[in-house]
Amino acid sequence: MSRKNDPQDKFHAVTIICLILGLGTLLPWNFFITAIPYFQQRLCSETHKLSGNHSENSELSDSSNNGTTKCRDDFNFNNWMTLLAQLPLLLCTLLNSFIYRWIPEKVRIAGSMLAILSLFIFTAILVKVEMDAQSFFDLTMATIWFINAFCAILQGSLFGLLTLFPQHYSSMFLSGQGMAGTFAALAMLLSMSSGADPRTTALGYFITPCVGTFISITCYFLLYHVDFANYHFSKSNTNSSKTYELETKTELLHQGEENGDAGQKKAVLLLKEAEAGSVGEEKQSVSLWTVLKKIWVMALTIVITFGVTLSVFPAITAKVVSRYDHEGWCKFFNPVCCFLIFNIMDWIGRSITSKILWPGPDCKYLPLLTASRFIFVPLFMLCNIPERTYLSTFFLNDVWFIIFMIFFSLSNGYFVSLPMCLAPKKVLPHESETTGALMTFFLALGLSVGAGLSFGFKALL
Ligand SMILES: O=c1[nH]cnc2c1ncn2[C@@H]1O[C@H](CO)[C@@H](O)[C@H]1O
């Protein structure tokens, strides 16, 4: 809650920094998934060279279709990439909840950003280095693992830091995360339309996130020179003081006023709880279990939303091709209709929550509502995927894929942002940091569950 004498966010500097930091955290994931055609083409052509041209066994062909090469996906690249990006995210999010006590936040945040920058530079260099397919696959997977591990530390630490600011700043951070994918898709389209050879195109593409990560690092350090940010950092250091207690109480009562009669009763209860908790204690202790009981609906919602999304995106959706033969359209079909549309609509979905928070924090049916998105799984599996064994194509026309993608991504953005915004409303102010950490863990859990499921759905194709 802001008071009259609080410093103001001049020129929206902190808002812009939060947006850029959000964007910075998701550059690794988005730049790797959007570059799937580059990786696949490289794995195919390297295998091609090694196994001798036209070997029947590997069914390879360098002829380009849809910007991807027609060759058997022996490496199961999309699935492994999704899993090896999301597993370290889950593990390191957990790790971060322990190490945050011992490693200062500045070291964790700046250190992970520098590590991410170095790994992006390594990936850019790798574009120009020739090697056999297996080594390229192994090196790429190791890069994906480490870059996402650092990304998890960065994300967890930033989410923790953001809980010190009013809620608007967390929404901005989430919006920034949503923008990272659009940034990657646009970088891909720009480098593809440059007309350069595929390797130079890929090099230009991978240099973009190096610049993006560098800008994020600069923004993070700038944050400590903004009065508004410093005011909120210092406020958190006096959390246990009387000032905080008074503020908490006024905030709770204000919350009651805003929410009407029922809200007022709840506020009084919360106030009592807060008073009971603070008697004789220097710092109010927070029980994970108590917080979990209050936010489990939101936690389940985010697990289901990401579980459904990652089970098909990008592992299955990146395999959908256009039914038309037009060379230009085929080349740009997947970058535009899969990645660009997904990311723009995902971002719009996330942004809607800054205006509408429906259904509210007390709705118990939110997980069921988001589970209905499961319908998209068979819909995408029945789109035009040439490489399949059991199913046949039902939705051949490109328009079907575009329509499914619009609704799939819009609902993803909305149902990701909604529980993240509602969860802090269900807890006491001193529990909000724990809530942020728990929700980040469930977010990563959902992503890993989805990545695991993607292997099953790919096998059913
Ligand atoms: O680390 C992460 N944190 C938050 N969201 C993520 C992360 N990785 C992927 N996504 C989300 O997964 C969807 C598909 O790309 C997008 O909504 C993206 O923001």
Structure overview:
The protein is mainly alpha-helical. The protein folds into two domains: 10-239 and 283-460, Up-down Bundle (Growth Hormone, Chain: A), CATH 1.20.1250.20; 242-282. It has 16 helices and two strands. It has helices at residues 13-34, 36-51, 77-99, 105-127, 133-162, 167-192, 198-223, 227-237, 242-258, 260-278, 288-312, 327-352, 366-371, 376-381, 398-422, 432-460; strands spanning 64-65, 68-69. A two-stranded antiparallel ribbon has the order 1-2. Strand 1 and strand 2 (68-69) form a beta hairpin. Helix 5 (133-162) runs antiparallel to helix 16. It is globular. 46% of the residues are buried. Mean pLDDT is 82; it is low at 50-69 and 240-282. Bound molecules: inosine. Residues 26, 29, 89, 155, 177, 181, 309, 313, 346, 412, 416, 443, 447 line the site of inosine.
* CATH fold-level label of the largest domain: Growth Hormone, Chain: A
Distance between the termini: 52 Å
Specify Rg, calculated over alpha carbons: 23 Å
- Biggest sheet: strand arrangement: 1-2
The percent of residues in helical segments reads over 70%
Q: Count all strands and give the number.
A: 2
| Helix count from the secondary structure assignment | 16
Order of helices and strands: HHEEHHHHHHHHHHHHHH
Strand content: under 5%
Number of domains: 2
Q: Any idea what the shape is?
A: globular
* CATH first level of the largest domain: Mainly Alpha
- At the fourth CATH level, what is the homologous superfamily of the largest domain? MFS general substrate transporter like domains
Q: Which whole number gives the mean pLDDT? A: 82
CATH architecture heading of the largest domain: Up-down Bundle
Structural class: mainly alpha
Subcellular location: Basolateral cell membrane
Keywords: Membrane, Transmembrane, Transmembrane helix, Transport
Pfam family, one: Nucleoside_tran
Family: Belongs to the SLC29A/ENT transporter (TC 2.A.57) family.
